[in-house]
Amino acid sequence: MSRTRRKSPAPLPQRQGIDAARLRLPLTGGPWRTVRDHLVERLAPPPEVIDAMLTAGEFVTADGRPLAPDAPYAPGLTLWFHRELRPEPPVPFPLRIVHRDAHIVVVDKPHFLATTPRGGHVTETALARLRRELDLPALGAAHRLDRLTAGLVLFTVRPEERGAYQGLFREKRVYKEYEALAPDDPALDLPRTVRSRIVKERGVLTAQEVPGEPNAISRVERLGPVPTDGRHGALARYRLLPLTGRTHQLRVHMTALGVPILGDPLYPVVREPVPPGDFGEPLRLLARVLAFTDPVTGVAHRFTSDRELAP
Q: Is the peptide bond preceding residue 13 cis, with omega within 30 degrees of 0?
């Protein structure tokens, strides 16, 4: 039986719940006389910032020793460093702990809070918050929920067990139930199962339905009308059951049915970005139920969000 190679632990501690970045120099070498020359060419900060970081000993080798500013280029050398953590508007909503034991943490994530660091959302993410607040630096995400979607997310406590929990999602052994608010169309024939082929290209904000073998399947059910003040017209509450996990799948399928989810900034049309720190118009999509048999303990779990979607 082959063994899974474990990643070497980072020689630098986390900062604000964020791991140090790992960088490996190309094995083929290049025109660089020093490591500094390669860093200036490869990394985003200007040369004076790279020089200041080298002088301060902020680039370290795998054994934790600071890299000398004039160190000669060494093909294949592994370096660790911390990227600049820029100020981010705090997401002013609580991250609720639904369940915690020695193996997992289940949280009820608010709208606008990213699950894991990505792009401009780094310290203001569920993972970074939980690592800081629970003092669990090894905490990792078993799956991801879109930043604009609220609801249940599963995190793992022990790195050596993370693969087992990630496998639940990869092998479709997790029951996921979502809830959404969207226009109420009396002519829409529901419940129904929607099948289509969805493609999401890197660098493109929206996913698209294209001809071909379906790779996205969603069950859509109407739960009933929602009282409104008339601002959004007639609305209904829907139960959405994704049987596959394509990017933006539920949002794409609801749009295709003619009932796009309330507050969606991408579907059916891409809106102008809101200013940073504007949390006034959430996507009315909630990961309501998460159920699975624990692959480590064998316990049958079923978690339910107590959040309420409002027009």
A: no
How far lies 111's CA from each of 104, 129, 178, in Å?
22, 15, 14
The per-residue b/e assignment along 160-173, b for 16 or more CB within 10 angstroms, e otherwise, is: ebbeebbebbeeee
Find out whether the peptide bond into 87 is cis, omega within 30 degrees of 0. Answer: no
Closest CA to 119 of 81, 79, 80, 86: 86
Edge-to-edge strand ranges of the sheet holding 78-81 = 21-24, 78-81, 60-61
Nearest to 78 by CA among 96, 59, 54: 59
Give me the residues paired with residue 186 across strands: none
Global pTM exceeds 0.85: yes
Q: Which pLDDT belongs to residue 164?
A: 98
The pLDDT of residue 6: 52
Cβ contact 235:228 at 8 Å: yes
Backbone dihedral region for residue 160 (phi beyond 0: left; psi -120 to 50: alpha; all else: beta):
alpha
Could you give the dihedral angle defined by the CA atoms of residues 177, 282, 16 and 81, in that order, rounded to the nearest 10 degrees?
90
Rg of the chain (C-alpha set): 23
Per-residue CA distances from 310 to 186, 199, 228, 235, 302 (Å) = 21, 30, 9, 10, 24
CB-count burial class (<10 Å; 0-12, 13-18, 19+) for 13 = exposed
Low pLDDT (below 70) residues in the chain: 1-8
Rounded CA separation 77/35 (Å): 9
How far is 284 from 310, CA to CA, in rounded Å?
Answer: 8
| Residue 176: Cβ within 10 Å count | 21
